Amino acid sequence: MAEVRILIEGYAKEVDGVEYACSSVTLVRAGQSNILVDTGSNRELLLEALRKEGLRPSDIGIVVLTHTHLDHCMLVGIFENAVILDGDSVYSFDGKISGHEGKVPGTDMEIVPTPGHDQFHCAVFVDTKEYGKVVVAADVFWWPEGASQSTDEASVLSLEDPYVKDPNALHASRKTILDSADYIVPGHGKPFVFNRDTIA
Fold first, then answer.
1. Residue 86 — very low, low, confident or very high, per pLDDT cuts 50/70/90?
2. Which CATH homologous superfamily contains domain 3-198?
3. Strands, E, within 16-131: which ranges?
4. Could you state, in order of their start, the residue ranges of all structural domains in the chain?
5. pTM above threshold 0.70
6. Alpha helices in 11-166 (DSSP H)
7. Does pLDDT of 198 surpass 90?
8. Is the pLDDT of residue 200 over 50?
9. Could you give the C-alpha distances from 76 to 48, 109, 141, in angstroms and in order?
């Protein structure tokens, strides 16, 4: 089974009137593959987190981008040996574009469309021994720094998103994730355990 490590816990904050944002960055080790979900925007934090895992950017073979807001994808270019995936395609640095079948190539990891925050948003579903079904949900769920992070069903379904493109689609995407996730990695904020047995 795959192993999941949170390299960066995403943040969104304001300091002295200046906004700072970097997405969560998740490392998945699946067989011989080192896979990142999102790259974030804080180069120093990311390189240090990779070093702690004994990795260099050249060791990453696949990067999955949940969506193309820059706080989630700004550093994708440093992974020169990787292929880049989004919700429906695989891109390489020679310009080649091909499709995928809703899975990260060579793995059982699912890439699931989760529109709402952005119309092309996707989430990554990973089966793990340690956490059960991990969903790297990105901005389907996110909290600004200092906000109360309530993770009961009612709170996460009604979580405010000031950047939402389609509220109905976002609600449906949240239900999709909550119906199967044991452990959720939000775009910004702390990962959390979700007990789907409480869902009506």
1. very high
2. Ribonuclease Z/Hydroxyacylglutathione hydrolase-like (3.60.15.10)
3. 18-22, 25-30, 33-37, 62-64, 83-85, 89-91, 97-99, 110-113, 122-128
4. 3-198
5. yes
6. 43-52, 70-73, 153-157
7. no
8. no
9. 16, 20, 22
